[in-house]
Structure formats: structure tokens, C-alpha cells
Amino acid sequence: MGRALNRTRDWTRRTAERARRTGERARRTGARARRHAGPGRVVRRRPCWGGLAVAVLGYCLSLTPSLLPRAWWLQGLAAGVSAAVGYAVGAVLETLARLLLRWAGVRVRPRVRRIVRPALGVLGVAAVVTVTAWSVRWEGEVRRAVSLPPQFARWQWALVPVVAVCVAALLLLAARTVRLGTRVLAHALGAHVPRRVAYGTGAAVVAFVIVGVVQGFLLRAALDAIESGASLADRGTTEGVHRPDLPTLSGGPDSAAPWDTLGAKGRDFVGTATPRADIAAFTGRPARDPVRVYVGLRSADTLDERAALAVRELERTGGFSRKVLAVMGTTGTGWINDQGSKPLEYMWGGDTAQVAMQYSYLPSWVSALTEDEAAATGRALFDAVHDRWRTLPASSRPRLLVYGESLGSFSMESALDGSLTALTSETDGALFVGPTYDNPLWKRITAERRPGSPEWRPVVADGANVRFAQVPTDYGIPAAPWGEPRAVYLQNGSDPVVWWSPALALHRPDWLDRPRARDVSPAMRWYPLLTFWQVACDLAGADSVPDGFGHRYGTLPTSAWAEITSPPGWTAADTARLAGLLESVPEPGLLD
């Protein structure tokens, strides 16, 4: 028993000694940290009042109308980021104000502070509650502009400030952590270099580390994960899509582009070609099996080899002997909207050939970060097809068309070097749907539009070759004769894919001038930085609205192709009948 007690005492003594040494090390570590952090507080115990005031302003402005209606959680996220940015601006302004007051010798009395701060707090809370309640009306106006019922679950909207506070707090915590790291490093260097140099070096090192971690680790890891998932999805095949037996389609038994190399969207494209029987049933006349050629990333090793393979596939399938040959630009995953491809097959009795080439596994919202791939692929495909097309006798050449939606339109415009001259001299018509802000030709002709014509429906060179439309009646604007070849841009006034751009951060866009597009709320205003962020958030809901709004164009390409190609014997009644037939065709979203 005595030995057991002695062992217990020894163990207790050793434990106490270890605890003492641990406490001593903690005190020394804390002293070193305080020494490096320098005098004063590194992180304020409470937020600054100037920052809070501007944060409330940013929150309130973020609730003002934008292009599209938003879900409550998305509005909360947008408001939280806006409040965090507002806080940063307000904190800087408060610091500058203090310096100016100190320089001027003005001192604010403690009594004034005790009165002003609670007053600001009460006003801030009142502003948040009032604007949040009033924004329900604004949201209803935006919903009405895109033909949605103005009523929605208002109790969910009450969660917007809760989400906003959580998001803003997390961003503020991250910012203060960065500031703490900068100050600790600066004071550690302060013993060896001047104070200004130490702070400058500390800020540069912390910024370098953050950028390195974000780009080299977080961003790269996120992109790798997305690409890995997209690559796996690209190997799948949509239910109901089967390998074709027709010699007019890629992926068949005699095709040089094997079925399993086309990618998921490529298999969808060739596997859903309009059957000859369906075309004949619609037109009441004999029809041909349409040609659809597709080359995936796995179909050949290099870009030039894939372009050459596409031409060989067109030759094998008889694509160069058809009446119409369309070069199709794809979105990020390689998708081509059936609403853009099927109308041509019906209008021309199946006597058509369409060719496309994949350039990425990634969805458009990610692959847009690497636009060079889309541009290079579009140029390689068009040049290869165009070079072969030019060798044919002029009297027997098919009509050469180009088509692209969203990032696909960027790809095809890049293939033409963004030149209207190239468009009119090297093609027989073009259809671009929902162009991006970076489309080279779109930017040029929009900037050079006729004075007085709105940016959302510009008039270019009296409409001789290019026209813009949101509804079929827009094809008649202007009333001047429409020559050949014809190019049509389909763009909705509420499409954030078209109108979002970095320039929104500092410049008021012309599309907010009067008159506005019918689907843009008259209450929408431009605010520096804020509108840029609001329209960026609208991208998340660009496909969550009815056809004819946002990034949804429905069957409008049907009427556009009728105007561009003028099929023999085709009537307006045929266009309406075909649009009705294609209304049930699924239209995937921006994730493609």
C-alpha cells in the first residue's frame, strides 16, 4: 500500500511539473506574439461604426432590382458580400476621417460619441428592416418583368438578413485574420528594417502566400475536382441515346470517330439526329437522312488532327454534297442545343450536314476561364471545313452556315477573327444565340451601332446583313431591305450572360438607358461595383426563368433560321407549326 501511495504522489508531482512547464512555454509564446504584434490591439473588439454604416448601405442597395429574380438564399449571399465590401470601404473612410480630424486639431467629445453611436445603430437596424420589407415589392416587379407570378414565399425573404449577416461575418473574420498575419510578420521584421519597409514587406508576403494558396492549391484543387468529375460524366451516355447504324452519322460502324470517343454531348448530338420519317411526316414530302458529324477530344490526339478528322467524316458521310452545311460551335462540355440544330433539318428536308468539335470536358461557367481553347477549336474547325468547301465547284457548293450558343457563339466568332467582312464573305449566314460579353464581333458591331438605337437591340449598317432580335417581330427592324448573307443575334434584355462584364464595376452600361428592353425592370439602377456583383449573381439563375427571358431562348432559333436561310416554299405558318413541334425539346442549362 505504501509503494502504491508513493507512485501516486510521484505521478502527481510529475504531472504538475509538466503542467507548469507547459504554462511557462505558453506564457513565453504569448509574450513573443505580443512583442511581434506590437503595441495596441491587433484586432478590434468591436466593428468600427463607419464600416457598419457603409455595410448597411451596401446591404440595402444589394436588394434593389437586378436583371432576374433570385432565390432567398442567393439574395442573402449577394447581400452579405455587398455588406462586407461596404464595411471595408467604410473602415477606410473612417480611418481617413480620423486622420483629417487629428491633422486639423479637432477632437470629438466622448459625449457626442455616446449619442451618435446608438443613433447610428438604431438607424441601421431600421434601414435593414425597412428595405428588406420593401424589397419584396421590388422582387415582385422583377418577377413580373420575366412573366413570373409576383407572389412568392415571403417568409423565406425574412431569412435574407440572417444569411447576409453570416456571410459578412465570415468574410470580415477572414479579412481580420489576414490583417493579423500581416501585422505579426511586420513587427517580426521591424527589428531588422525600418517600420514602413517592414509593413510593406509583411503585406507583400501575406498577399503572395494568399494568392499562392488560392491559385496554386484551392483553385487548382477545385478545378481538378471539377475536371475529374466532368471527364467521368463525359464517358456516360444519356438514357435513350444509342449508337447509330446510319452511315450519315459519326460514331457508326464505318465512322473514323468511334462512338466511345465522342463524349456524352457528342453522343447526344449524333444520337438525336432527326429521323427521316419524322421530317417527311412534317413536310409531307420525301426526306433524306441528315448528316451529323462530331469529333470528341478523345477522337484524335491534337487539335489539327481532330479538325482533319471532321473533314474526313464530312467526306465519308456526303456532307459536302448537301444543300446546307452548318459549322456548329459547342458550349463547354461540347453541347449543342437541339433548338438550334433540328430546325435546319426540318426546313431543308434532311438535306443538311452539321459538324461540330469538342474542346473541353468542363461546363461553360468553368471553361469560360480558358476561352483560348474555344477560340482555337472554332478557328481550326471552320478553317478546315472552309478550305475543303472552297475546292468544290461554286455551282455545287452547299450553303455554308455558322451557329453558336453562349460560349459556342464566342467560338464561331473567333473562327471568323471577329470580322464582319469575314462573316459576310466566307459564310452564307450565321446564327448567334445569347452571345457573351467577350464575343469579338458582337462587341465591335454593338459599339458601332446606329446612334439612337438601344444597345439591347442595335441597328448595324442599316440592317443590311446583321440584325438583333428578342421576339420574331424584331427581324423587321430596321425597315430597310435585308440583303444576303444574313446574320442574326438572339439576345434577351434580361440575359446576364450577354450583359455581365468587368466594365460593369465602374461604368454605367448603355442597356440601362431609356428605352429599356421589355424584360428589364424600370426600377433597376446602376451602382459602382454593386451592379457588377448583382448581375454576376444573376448568372446563377439565368436558366430558371420562362423561355424568352434570361438565357432561355426556346424555339426562337426556328424563326431565326427561317429568316436566315429562306427555305424554298417555306411559310410563316410552317415556322409556327415547327416551333410548336419543337416546344417539348429539352433545353439544358448553363452547366453545359
Structure description:
By secondary structure, this protein is α/β, with parallel strands linked by helices. The chain has two domains: 173 residues, no CATH class; 298 residues, no CATH class. It is 53% helix and 6% strand. The chain has a seven-stranded parallel beta sheet with strand order 1-3-2-4-5-7-6, with helices on both faces. Helix 11 links the parallel strand 2 and strand 3. The termini are far apart.
Poorly predicted spans? 36-42
Shape: globular
Strand content: 5-15%
User: Strand order, biggest sheet?
Assistant: 1-3-2-4-5-7-6
Report the structural category. Answer: alpha/beta
Tell me about the largest β-sheet.
7 strands, parallel
- What is the chain-wise order of helices and strands? HHHHHHHHHEHEHEHHEHHEHEEHHHH
Count the beta strands: 7
Task: Please work out how many helical segments DSSP would assign.
Answer: 20
Quickly count the domains: 2
How is the topology of this model organized?
Elements: H1 2-37, H2 49-62, H3 72-104, H4 110-145, H5 154-157, H6 160-189, H7 195-234, H8 264-271, H9 276-283, E1 291-295, H10 303-317, E2 324-329, H11 338-347, E3 352-357, H12 364-367, H13 371-390, E4 399-405, H14 407-415, H15 420-426, E5 430-433, H16 440-447, E6 466-469, E7 487-490, H17 496-499, H18 530-538, H19 556-565, H20 572-582
Parallel strand pairs: 1-3, 2-3, 2-4, 4-5, 5-7, 6-7
Helix pairs in contact: 1-6, 2-3, 2-4, 3-6, 3-18, 6-7, 10-13, 11-19, 13-14, 19-20
